[in-house]
């Protein structure tokens, strides 16, 4: 359900009310109590969620088609009959305040808010969607009811239904469900018009963070303006992907930033063209001029045909990928109808994209990219030297424009450029094939055993280092060549490294299959581990290791693993340490990689718009030079149960505390893993015990969940909560109480069946995308579970009984051998 109201329609003294309302809509109706909606959705194996934007509020529900009536009844009941209980409102406001604190602790989120708050002086886009602590605390049930009566009326809403159903029958049911829902006159929408900007605006902030954020914004028109297609194409060329201009010049060539990108933000009202970079504090002053010069060069030099065609293809392919799931299709249709002006938007937009010329790119750059239309913001670490002042930003931006005037005006020359089958190829590669011709998409996963578990202690992080290098050059392709080819086929190509494996995954349009397969096989067979790329990547990894201190959930996760696993490889960070990465040589990467890239260790899964015989021959030819080798899984000491309870704490001066409490779990071949997974799901999710008790009832957190991981060696069962520092003891006590309940008494039949249905439904929904299925079958086969294990998932989960839950709870929830990790402020 799309509702035509977002934060833009709020008054200043009620900032955040649209978001608070969104939280409250599922908090009980006249016939469904608090938690009843989540419970019923779980029982039907679906999921329900919502989000608030500047212009819209959206409630989305995914459910098996056989439960269509249930889903419709829930949506119509929530929209028409929510009670907005005042006590629940108080609790939910506390939850939202925790969410607000979480956003303040996230540097990139805060930097984005500060840029918008500076770029807009009158328009409501200047306010954060979540509002402010003062305004959220001030909202009462009367405010919520008033907001509901004004905005939640049928003539201000669009219901989108996509899936397996009979249209006429569904339409009649929808009409009956909303028969008593009467339209009314909408309030007059008086949105302040943002005055034209005439001078550079700046915002400089400092905080206890490791990495700086440098952001630029230029005012641009709203979504339906004729210039938007050209601006969208421009944003791809300038700053999206490794072959983009900003990435190649600012990151690869000049090494001034850790990441850089651009984005054309075009909501319902005039938006911003955004350019953002994450970088070290001492590089800020040196980065401003090169970044702005790269932006301003678009005003005097036309882009070449290759860049133009690549960007158009990427934008067009995004619409194809969106149609892969019913959720994606529904979201797209809702957006078109409510924000974009009608269901014919896609056709018009794609046509407009195809018609964009190099001259159009130059024209819009000249029109919008100038210093009088520029806002710049900096959020930087408060420690150290090299602080930057607003006047310095202004002077550097002026310098960028002056340098641009020296650049000769010239035109860049154009440059034209059913069923899963398992086969063992002659050299020993395991090939998995699934034909699916519904969409012109192909997903590929190539998985090797490897990863963190297989690393020498003194080379911690080497598997991730190897994966990061795979797309950075082969014996015949440079990193830039690879990035350019990936974007030319409207696809993605990523290497990965995890706890027990590493490899490569790709997604592409099927018409580019031959090119894509040639590229993927080259990346796997012929990585060059180029010396210059090696040195650049080492510096990047070391910077990431340094800067991840700002990511508090990552910190608490690492601390938990270190405390639980001790000397086992799972105790280590997958990125490695400053010492281990510094010691790794280029030759170490080659040696490690060769050890694992033998055919017997490779599972290659292809899912999508392919033909069985055709793809078999192509894969065999592509990998014919990968010769048979010898591979055996090395034996290492197994993780041990902690001898006693263990607790570890890290102090960070942030607004929230982050807590993980957990226990040693099972490996992925242990039959207990299914019962533990059900147990974990009983605790987690919106209908879960932790959420209901610690968030809904006690308002201790915005984020609370349970985690169950099974790996090649034993994983863990844990509960996580992010809370205010003064609530730490109460939060830990609350987690323990909910865990103890599971060891003391059986789970009720209704709760158990609801949880199992939800798990099965979510699992099946998650496999809609070709990439998700390719990953599922590849990993399952490589870990020895069988490529078809996903087909047995529903049966294994359905077979779990309340006796099983009680048994595994008593076995694994052991309060004499638990681990507690906390990241919190010192005082």
UniProtKB/TrEMBL annotation:
**Listed Pfam families:** Peptidase_M16, Peptidase_M16_C
Q: Which Gene3D superfamilies match?
A: Metalloenzyme, LuxS/M16 peptidase-like (3.30.830.10)
Please list the residue ranges annotated as the Peptidase M16 C-terminal domain.
Answer: 138-314, 583-758
Lineage, top-rank taxon, reads Bacteria
Q: Which GO terms describe its molecular function?
A: metal ion binding
Identify the residues that the record assigns to the Peptidase M16 N-terminal domain, covering every copy. 1-131, 432-577
Q: Which family does it belong to?
A: Belongs to the peptidase M16 family.
What is the designated name of this protein? Peptidase M16
